[in-house]
Amino acid sequence: MNGYTFAEKALARAAGLSAARAGDILDVQPDLIFSHDNSAAIRRIFEQTGAPAVVRPERIAITLDHAVPAPTTQHAQNHAEIRRWVQEQHIRHFFEVGRGICHQVISEEALVLPGETILGADSHSTHYGWLGAFGMGIGRTEMAALWAVGELWLRVPESMKITLNGKLQRGVTIKDASLRILGDLGVAGGQYRAVEFAGDTLSTLALDERPVLPNMMAEFGAMSAYLPPDQAVFDYLEPRRTRAYTPLYPDHDAIYAEEYTLDVSNLEPQIALPHQPDNVVPLSEVIGQPVQQAFLGTCTNGRFEDLQAAAEVLRGHRVRCRLVVIPASSQVFLQAVQSGVLAALVEAGAAVGTPGCGPCMGNHMGIPSPDEATVSSANRNFRGRMGTPDAPVYLASPYVVAASAICGHLADPREFLPGHNPL
Amino acid sequence: MTVHRVWVYGDNVNTDVIFPGKYTYTLKTPEEIAAHALEDLDPAFASGVRPGDVIVAGRNWGSGSSREQAVTTLKYAGVPVIIAASFGGLYFRNCINQGIWPVVCPDLSQWVQTGETIEINRQAEQILAAGRVFAIPSLSPSVQAILEGGGLLPMLQRRFGKVDT
Question: Which one of A51, A139, A148 has the shortest CB-CB distance to B66?
Answer without folding.
Answer: A139
